[in-house]
Specification:
By secondary structure, the chain is mainly α. It contains 12 helices and 4 strands; from the N terminus they run ββαααααααββααααα.
């Protein structure tokens, strides 16, 4: 497993693991770029969805994942194919900034989505003021700004440094003067946001449940059927969405974070590769979790695909002139039908 060269312990990854990692990174790159691009286009074509606070944070999340799939994953593919870093020092220092920054942006966007839903449910009278267009832009800029700030200490070599770990041919956060910010970044950038998300969704669930119970107490048996059924349906959908969000996210990122913090010497190289593959998957599944799980987003997807289909149809030889009015009407239907409801 280990080869020693020039006093550096070189960790030999199993060939099977590097081949699987290369294939997965290529696959995730293609699927992630397409999935996130389609999600961005679909949501941007629906003005009513686009203007909603939650959609703005979903778009921010999709842009982050698109950046990861189009930049980090191709670099990762080259790394695993060559089984060494051959892309130079500048890209080696950029790689961990984009990777850890992407994790931070994803989590902070999830926190923003969770808090916006909690305020909408618990403090609806303040929602319009807290989520005006200006306030949304400020929050999104803050999300990206915080992700950049937490990577400044190692980037400026104030605390730790960025560079190549020759034993694992990985570009990551390294120690400087025997110190590294990895564990602190794990606590502040991963654990703390997860705690906020869990507490917020627990409060949302409790608020929805109490509202439903109060509604049942004040309604007669004959009048409560429709409202009760809708409340129960929304309650179940919210619970499932919460489980999907946390199970998928934790399954994707927690293993890699744990391996990087508690097995920094890479005693189990195959597990590191597996954990990395799971982390890459997050950039692919996020569009499905945050978009396909909601019927209004699915409608936006459907309208976009119909536009593509209309363009392809009218572009075929012999199909006649392009009916741009029909295409535009097809694209604008989501505006009248969209009524965002994340529950």
């Amino acid at each position: 497993m280990f080869n020693v060269t020039d006093d550096i312990t070189v960790i030999k990854y199993p060939k099977f693991a590097t081949v699987v990692a290369s294939i997965c990174s290529i696959l995730f790159c293609v699927v992630g770029v397409i999935g996130n691009s389609v999600t961005i286009l679909a949501l941007c074509r629906c003005p009513k969805l686009r203007s909603h606070a939650t959609t703005a944070f979903v778009l921010s999340l999709c842009i982050s994942d698109l950046l990861f799939c189009s930049v980090n994953l191709p670099l990762t593919t080259v790394r695993y194919i060559n089984e060494e870093w051959t892309l130079g020092d500048a890209l080696c220092k950029l790689f961990p900034v984009l990777f850890y920054g992407n994790v931070a942006v994803s989590l902070l966007n999830m926190v923003a989505i969770t808090l916006s839903r909690y305020i909408l449910i618990a403090y609806s009278k303040y929602y319009e003021q807290l989520y005006s267009k200006t306030a949304i832009w400020v929050q999104i800029i803050a999300v990206w700004g915080i992700a950049i700030l937490i990577m400044l200490p190692p980037s400026l070599e104030i605390w730790g440094r960025l560079g190549l770990n020759p034993s694992t041919f990985s570009c990551t956060i390294l120690e400087k003067d025997g110190s590294s910010p990895k564990k602190v970044l794990f606590l502040i950038g991963f654990v703390l946001p997860c705690v906020v998300i869990i507490i917020s969704y627990s409060c949302i669930y409790w608020k929805v449940r109490m509202s439903r119970l109060n509604l049942l107490k004040h309604q007669s048996v004959n009048k409560k059927d429709r409202m009760t059924q809708k409340r129960e349906k929304d309650d179940n959908r919210l619970t499932k969405l919460m489980l999907i969000i946390f199970v998928c996210f934790l399954c994707c990122f927690l293993p890699l974070m744990m391996m990087n913090v508690f097995d920094d010497d890479v005693a189990y190289p195959s597990l590191h590769v597996l954990a990395s593959i799971l982390a890459w998957a997050s950039s692919v599944v996020n569009p499905f979790i945050y978009a396909a799980s909601n019927r209004q987003y699915r409608s936006a997807y459907s309208k976009l695909f119909r536009i593509f289909q209309s363009v392809v149809t009218v572009s075929k030889p012999g199909s006649g002139s392009t009916d741009f009015r029909a295409i535009e009407k097809n694209g604008q239907q989501c505006t009248s039908k969209a009524n965002l409801d994340l529950s």
